[in-house]
Amino acid sequence: xxxxxxxxxxxxxxxxxxxxxxxxxxxxxxxxxxxxxxxxxxxxxxxxxxxxxxxxxxxxxxxxxxxxxxxxxxxxxxxxxxxxxxxxxxxxxxxxxxxxxxxxxxxxxxxxxxxxxxxxxxxxxxxxxxxxxxxxxxxxxxxxxxxxxxxxxxxxxxxxxxxxxxxxxxxxxxxxxxxxxxxxxxxxxxxxxxxxxxxxxxxxxxxxxxxxxxxxxxxxxxxxxxxxxxxxxxxxxxxxxxxxxxxxxxxxxxxxxxxxxxxxxxxxxxxxxxxxxxxxxxxxxxxxxxxxxxxxxxxxxxxxxxxxxxxxxxxxxxxxxxxxxxxxxxxxxxxxxxxxxxxxxxxxxxxxxxxxxxxxxxxxxxxxxxxxxxxxxxxxxxxxxxxxxxxxxxxxxxxxxxxxxxxxxxxxxxxxxxxxxxxxxxxxxxxxxxxxxxxxxxxxxxxxxxxxxxxxxxxxxxxxxxxx
Length: 468
What we know:
Elements: H1 2-40, H2 75-82, H3 95-102, H4 111-122, H5 127-134, E1 159-166, E2 174-175, E3 178-179, H6 180-194, E4 200-206, H7 217-221, E5 224-231, H8 235-243, H9 253-263, E6 270-277, H10 287-295, E7 300-308, H11 312-324, E8 329-332, H12 335-349, H13 352-404, H14 408-466
Parallel strand pairs: 1-4, 1-6, 6-7, 7-8
Antiparallel strand pairs: 2-3, 4-5
Helix pairs in contact: 4-13, 4-14, 6-12, 9-10, 10-11, 13-14
């Protein structure tokens, strides 16, 4: 019985074992099928494992080429011109955005690397000032046309010279071996030849008709005529006009002065009258009132009287005419004195070299000051820029120091920042001051040269005048 029980137990265990094996086989079949399916598929390639890339500030866009330069840039200027212009430089400065960019930087860069990254954000653009220095022209050259032997009035002046000659019979009298008329003609011809070439000239004669007799008085006192009127002196035409003048009758000074208004061209700004006479008004006219009226006209007018061999009573009367005409009265007794006086008037007009000298001095000074100002302002602009750049770079460095909570290479960046500032600052001072000095020296040299040339030109003109 015991034996049968043992056999029965063994049989039961075998049945149970087979049942469990079958269950395991059933459960594992789907898994094996899935594995088989996966093996049939191509294997997915995995990306190779690499070190994490360092995130740095984005490189700025490429710069435009520099404009044409008058000289080659120095090595320092080239390095400065090729450095990046910060995204947040100048007016674009934004500390918050800069700090966001700084948050991308790792903690293990060198001091030079930190500086380069900071310059990508805040590096100033020095190129315009470098170009100014490279193209700077420190020369000072006055561009004024030198005066010639011909006197020229300033462009804003329109001057008319009215020459009035007494052709009364008394001009037949002689002084120094010549008739007063011949001496007056020669002196007036020389004087007219010295007048400014861009002035207008009229030659009016009075008392040249009739005779000194009572029966011809009306004819003579009513005679005044223009023999020459044009721009500048033309020797042939002026000589022909003088040749027609012959002493004849009475002395209508007032009538001649009243007629001067007809001789003044339009747009004239000033009129200078010269009356050559050997006597007083003899036709009953009011020469004083006529001169006064001319002096009060819209056109600035002066009446100068040249008394040629006039007696005392005549001198008093002619001086009154000159005073009324806001001019001067001069008495001369002979041809030499007459020419000398007219040459003196030429002296007043032959100021071209002195005027050129003064204008040239002013122009040289203005040019020098302008160049000095440009050199000084460019230097100062660079100094201001680099100082502001330094302060911004140091603030960024401080932010990095606090972020990493350590010094190391970050603190060493201070030296690089300060060295950069000092180099750019010194560059601005050296080049700016050098160009300033050159401008001063060139301006002063030109100024002195103008004075020398102007004075020599004036002396030559005086010598030529005196040789006539």
